[in-house]
Sequence to fold (358 residues):
Amino acid sequence: MASENVVGKNTGESAVTTIVNLAAEEAKLAREGVKAPGHAILSICKSLVAGGVAGGVSRTAVAPLERLKILLQVQNPHSIQYNGTVQGLKYIWKSEGFRGLFKGNGTNCARIVPNSAVKFFSYEQASSGILLLYRRHSGKEDAQLTPVLRLGAGACAGIIAMSATYPMDMVRGRITVQTEKSPYQYRGMFHALRTVYCEEGFRALYKGWLPSVIGVIPYVGLNFAVYESLKDWLIKTNPYGLVEDSELSVVTRLGCGAVAGTVGQTVAYPLDVIRRRMQMVGWKDAASVVTGHGTSKAPLEYNGMVDAFRKTVRNEGFSALYKGLVPNSVKVVPSIAIAFVTYEVVKDVLGVEMRISD
Fold:
């Protein structure tokens, strides 16, 4: 019994010591300009607002290209309607008018605003937490985040945000491919969510979730890692006089975001194609784009991610994994760049001080 008391006492003292040490380290980091994971409520709200505005503005700016990309990814290969970026945009304009270019954008904005808000905020939190732990375990009080650690923070942020809003993304994909000739029309995001849940079950709302999670690691992780690392490199080396008063101009930050977006989307694109195709599986009254206008060759059914990869490559060739890559490349570069720049500009306007100091 006495030994148990000794163990309990030692354990309690160890816990108290740990808490005191952590508090001291957090206070020290705060004095140095590095905030620990616990932030004031006001700063949290401001960061969420900045991320939400960044996501909404960037996606709206490229909505026509986003819709065309999804149409190219899921259209029935035996009934081609969209054959390239320019032809595809012209076809949408001719068959559906101006509003057709932005079909699904409302649902996309409703999804991307909370998604971006959670993603940016989670990245700030994960970066601060990882840096705090890294400095503790390395014993280097002036240590900074490495590209690998930034990749981890970005991946964590992307998975959290994507999982939280995935059902909205799933129904957004279906609404986006609807045309006037579709046999059944979703009237909006909430109607689509309710219909899918009632007709296909709760699990249907997460069709394509696995390739999405896997794709988050290279896509979101590389976006953040490349952007932050490139920005730090430019500030430290100042090539071509791009840095003024230790700050990068909006144009330079736009370029950093463009490079980050290009790298991330190229690596993860096949997984994006597969998840979109998996989202269409089980759609009883699928859009004519998917069914092929009643042709004898019905859209394929997939039993999972590996099966979807195998059938796509076997029936359409390896290049099918990159359908829609051109409009996506044109779209993703300004989209990611505008998102990063808008986020930082709005954050500066709101007076949010959440960056990890150099």
